[in-house]
Amino acid sequence: MDGRTTVTDKAETFLRGLTPRARGMLVRRLESNHAVPVDIDARQRLILEAARSIAESRSVAKQATEAGPPDMRRLIFAAFEPYVIEERLTFPGRGFVTAATLSHLWAYACTELLPTQFVAWDNLSTAPRLPDAPAYQQMAAQLETRLFEALARHIQAIADEPKLQQRFMSRIGGEVARREVDDMIAVRDRLNDLPTLSAAIVHLLDSGSADMGLLEQIATYLTKYPETAGWVAGGVFRRQSSVAPLVAFAKLLARGETARRVRTTPAAAAFVDLGLAAADRAESRFLSSVRGSRDAADAVAQIGAFRSILNELATGLDIDNDGWWQQRVVAIKRRFSEMLFAEFDKLLPAMRRAFRVQEAPYPGPADGAEAVFLCAIFAGASKSRDTLAINGLIGRLTPLVDQAIELYAHDLPTRLRNLDGEARAVALSAVDHLIKAAGFLYGEDYASHLRRSKEQQLKTSRPAA
Q1: CA-CA distance, 3 to 352, in Å (whole number)?
Q2: pLDDT value at position 410?
Q3: Which of 70, 218, 321, 367 is 20 to 30 A from 260, comparing alpha carbons?
Q4: What is the mean pLDDT of residues 137-155?
Q5: pLDDT over 70 (residue 66)
Q6: Structural domain total, the chain
Q7: Domain boundary at 218, 240, 262, which?
Q8: Statement to judge: residues 236 and 286 lie in one domain
Q9: Domain stops at, among 211, 240, 269
Q10: What residues make up the domain containing 441?
Q11: pLDDT digits (tens, 9 = 90+) for 305-347
């Protein structure tokens, strides 16, 4: 057994034996610049990184038990907390759990699966009182065991009953939720191993040289427990916020550079699948922004994240040569482009409503904010036209948008000279929104030019009534 294997084995034994408090102390030592030297040994850094991950995954449980009766639902699902996302994905990947699925699963346990054991914990104000935090932890562990054992028995019992399967899916949130529950059951017994494995992969990729002993150990584990691969990938993505390391490790694991080679290595394929799920997540976040807050900065950020993920996947692996992954990518791109098409249909009309100040009814702040939002996502999408496959649409709209901005940039400041009262206030608001929109479309230099033009017109205009 080589040195790397020995250290990793000792790390796993050591970390599992620590109490949450001890792991927290270890993390604090890691985060202290004085306690841990910059040139810390790589193997010790691997151990400390895994300790931080385990401590984080247990922090929900610790916080929940500090102030009286805890939220037992969060306590029971605490080990899955690092993998929880808010977005419902079109193509879910093993390694993400939707928050809504956990909510539906808890409700199902309280109302149908194990009501006598769970319903008492559904209301914090009436939840049973236990003597201390360890007692709550022990109760949570017991309830977690009962829940997953009951789920496994129920799923097995209805395996040949389509109507009962449909009913079960409807109770927990649908087909996607059913798949997530199956994945949770499959990986549950190995959850404590995942942070160490994810940290080991990050170390392996950051070290700059292939540690074949460590790689072999990880590969052996993932081959023995293939259901963990996607979750380990999820842990790597959470640390790196990039899919490039996922692709790089997938190729190491498959011992090959092609998509075909990676696809025929199930554990390696799971890392690429998680990357595609990350693209799907950025897309879902964009949709939430469009349908909800219509926050320009957030929407543009999701366009950028989507572009980066797909570019990293395409650069790192010849995905277009794999039929299954290519179909996934095409479907994800099509969905994103359809959302953009729907928004861009509103762009020019929104600009007219926001920036044409002629007569009542005048545009309001909401009209200006809508125009800014649409201009922002148009600018963001223009930078990603190739990735999003919207070259034609951007090409047709760009000259029309340029002409409109040029017209309003000349017209609005000029109008400030002669307007007063409500019309003047409306024009000032419209100019401010125009400056914001121009900043997204053409950059801060052009926005500053419009700002100076506005200030010049205000100096020469007549005072407001």
Answers
A1: 69
A2: 86
A3: 218
A4: 96
A5: no
A6: 2
A7: 240
A8: no
A9: 240
A10: 277-460
A11: 999 999 999 999 999 888 889 999 999 999 999 999 999 999 9
59 is written with which tokens?
């922090």
pLDDT of residue 440: 94
Q: Is residue 272 part of a domain?
A: no
**Residue 247 clears pLDDT 70, i.e. is over it:** yes
Q: Are residues 236 and 281 in the same domain?
A: no
Whether residue 326 sits in one domain with residue 196: no
- The mean per-residue pLDDT over the stretch 362-382 comes to 94
Q: Is residue 271 part of a domain?
A: no
| pTM of the shown model | 0.79
- The structure tokens listed for 69 are 């009766």
Among residues of the chain, what percentage have pLDDT more than 90?
63
152 and 3 together in one domain: yes
Whether 253 is in a domain gets the answer: no
Mean pLDDT score, 26-40: 50
For 142, phi and psi rounded to 5 degrees?
-65, -45
Same domain, 184 and 281: no
- One domain, residues 329 and 380: yes
**Total Cβ atoms within 10 A of residue 443:** 11
152 versus 9: which is more confidently predicted? 152
| ∠ Cα 229 231 235 (to 5°) | 115
Q: How many other C-beta atoms can be found within 10 angstroms of the C-beta atom of residue 360?
A: 7
Q: Give the dihedral of Cα atoms 322, 325, 329, 331; nearest 10 deg.
A: 110
Percentage of the chain beyond pLDDT 70 is 83
pLDDT in tens, 250-298: 999 999 999 999 999 999 999 999 999 999 999 999 999 999 999 999 9
156 and 37 inside one domain: yes
Are 362 and 224 in the same domain? Answer: no
Tell me if 168 is assigned to some domain: yes
